[in-house]
Amino acid sequence: MQGQRIGYVRVSSYDQNPERQLEQVEIGKLFTDKASGKDTQRPQLEAMLGFVREGDTVVVHSMDRLARNLDDLRRLVQKLTKRGVRIEFLKEGLVFTGEDSPMANLMLSVMGAFAEFERALIRERQREGIALAKQRGAYRGRKKALSDEQAITLR
User: Fold this and answer.
1) Which terminus of the chain, N or C, has fewer Cβ atoms within 10 Å?
2) Is 101 designated active site?
3) According to the CATH classification, is domain 5-111 in 1.50.10.20?
């Protein structure tokens, strides 16, 4: 059964350009999240998972755009392929159908592990940067989500 091509895009921050991920790729429907890939609790990812049907192909720029955690990546790929949905990762040139060879499964594990490793490096660099900023007295932390008055009202 030939279904439609569905795009999934994730950018980590609002100032990143999501359009570049699936430029010149023909898709029928696009789901875009502007959120961290540290977990799978993302509104558009959940919407895409609810939308896809057997025979559809989910197109993602790269594995790290779907998940930064190897367990999450494997779980999502398995969840989709068990439902008869193909998943295509453009950057890696890999397609998963559920009838994948041992080599395809190895590639999923290796590439997913690299995505997880990259996330760990980002977090480590962030911690180092914060520590240096604190030493210089330049670190103030993130902006408050609530004003003092709002916090008092909520209590």
Assistant:
1) C
2) no
3) no
